[in-house]
Design brief:
This protein has 7 helices and 5 strands; from the N terminus they run αααααβββββαα. It is an alpha+beta fold. It folds into 2 domains: about 10-60, no CATH class; about 75-155, Zinc finger, CHC2-typedomain (DNA Primase, Chain A). It has a 5-stranded antiparallel sheet, with helices on one face. A hairpin with a 4-residue loop joins strand 4 (about 120-125) and strand 5 (about 130). Helix 2 packs antiparallel against helix 3 (about 40-60).
């Protein structure tokens, strides 16, 4: 076997961002219905995408802990720009007056229901009926706790 041959999950991890992989995983879950003729394919695809997500997580460097073990959440929140954080996760925002909109990274949709309020540094998805600040977004997208989210936002 050629050492340069990559597995399917490795190829997916290289080609797609974490947001795109999560979208693909959600799509595979929606399409993996037992009554479909291609049920085995969707099961394989879901497993492959999940493996690619694990590869991507392993490639992501761990956040450096604060030297004193203290995170100044207030100053991080004041410095954090929700637009910058969302775009760093691959969310493609479009201007809609004073607001920004995008397709939600947490569920599949064709019409944008994910709204960003840049002046308030907040977001809300009317499809999922969830929202919050930059910490809430990072917690949800990376499936991590508040402290890890604060460290990630502080590092951006």
């Amino acid at each position: 076997m050629n050492n340069n041959t990559k597995t399917d999950p490795e190829v997916l991890a290289e080609r797609f961002t974490m947001v795109e992989l999560r979208h693909q995983l959600h799509s595979a879950d929606l399409n993996a219905r037992p009554d479909w003729d291609d049920f085995p394919y969707w099961n394989w695809y879901r497993d492959t995408v999940q493996a690619a997500i694990e590869i991507k997580k392993a490639q992501t460097p761990a956040p450096v802990p604060h030297p004193a073990g203290h995170i100044d959440v207030k100053s991080i929140k004041e410095r954090a720009n929700i637009v910058t954080v969302l775009e760093s996760y691959g969310v493609q925002l479009k201007r809609a007056g004073k607001l920004l909109k995008a397709c939600c990274p947490f569920h599949t949709e064709k019409t944008p229901s994910f709204i960003v309020y840049p002046d308030e540094n907040l977001w809300h998805c009317f499809g999922c009926n969830i929202g919050g600040d930059v910490f809430d977004f990072v917690k949800k997208i990376d499936n991590i706790g508040f402290l890890e989210a604060a460290e990630k936002v502080g590092a951006l």
